[in-house]
Amino acid sequence: MVRRDATDALGRALYELICSHDGITAREMARQLGVDRKSINQRLYTYPFIRDLCYHDEDYRWYGVIQQQVPHVGLGDYAGWYGYVDEFMAQAEDAWLDELQAGCARIGRSLNDTRGLVHSFLDCRGVMRETFEALADFGMDPRSWELAFELRIKRARWIRIYADVLVLVPVEGDVPGYAFSLEFKMKDVIDAGEVAQAAKYVPYLEVIMGSGMNVVPALVLTRARDLFVHEALGGGGELPVASADMLFNVFDEYLGFLG
User: Fold this and answer.
1) In terms of pTM, does the model score above 0.85?
2) Residue burial 188-221, b: 16+ Cβ < 10 Å; e: rest
3) CB under 8 Å to 71, separation ≥6 — which residues?
4) CB-CB contact of 20 with 35 (8 Å)
5) Is residue 121 within 8 Å of 111, Cβ to Cβ?
6) Other Cβ atoms within 10 Å of 61 Cβ, number
7) What domains, with CATH codes, occur in the chain?
8) Is the dihedral of CA 186, 189, 191, 192 positive or negative?
9) What pLDDT sits at residue 112?
10) Which tens digit of pLDDT belongs to each residue from 132-191?
11) What is the DSSP letter of 170?
12) Distance CA 157, CA 106 (A)
């Protein structure tokens, strides 16, 4: 899928309308957006996100398979593990791992090299638990945040979105929400290709999450220590890179809890 598909303004607006309503007709979309029905109908059947992640009933009311509200109903259908942070923190390691592996098998995530994968899964779990504990120590309350491990949005031929961990911080009043998309590597050296990989799906996650959520990508190196830097991206901009013990800084950069 080429980048322009994610930046089609009308297609994105329609997708957001569909995913923030419990059924909406083309007529209602046209009225709310002030756009002619012909343009609406064209996007409904050509915009990739609508083609792959939306459907209509017999009355031609449109629905999104992933809703843009808390909870993000449908998101768990594309993740190995999905729930709230308080559920994650309360779950025993064995139960979490069993649920994650079952979820990975359900969504088609390869479980080859099981020994290596289990090690990486548990490594990732440990980092996230330590990070949420650190956030709590700094006065944050992440218990109601949504959390997805091994996100694989892969529908038909159009949509391909991957994230090792997705952390969703809800919108509060006029303050936007955040979707932290974390790419994990069991390394201690920064690789430019992996920096680019961490940012690859941001334009598409921005469509999935909607305009009320800011998508923040980051690369996490679990074998590094005392690391928090920003690496330049090829197309412009920077991406935070953090070691496991410094991951809380990625959240602080946007949530500002350290003052």
Assistant:
1) yes
2) eeeeeebbeebbebbbbbbbbbbeebebbbbbbb
3) 146
4) no
5) no
6) 16
7) 3-64 (1.10.10.10), 75-255 (no CATH)
8) positive
9) 79
10) 999 999 999 999 999 999 999 987 667 889 999 999 999 887 778 999 999 999 999 999
11) P
12) 19
3-state helix vs strand vs coil in the chain, percent to 5? 45, 25, 30
Which residues lie below 8 Å from residue 58, measured CB to CB, with a gap of 6+?
none
Token readout for 121 is: 């899964």
Q: What is the mean pLDDT of residues 237-249?
A: 97
Tokens at 257, concatenated = 């809890």
Continuous segment of H or E residues that includes residue 140: none
Instruction: Give pLDDT, residue 109.
Output: 87
Contact 71, 39 (CB under 8 A): no
Q: Strands 238-243 and 228-232, how do they pair?
A: antiparallel
Tokens of 8: 């089609």
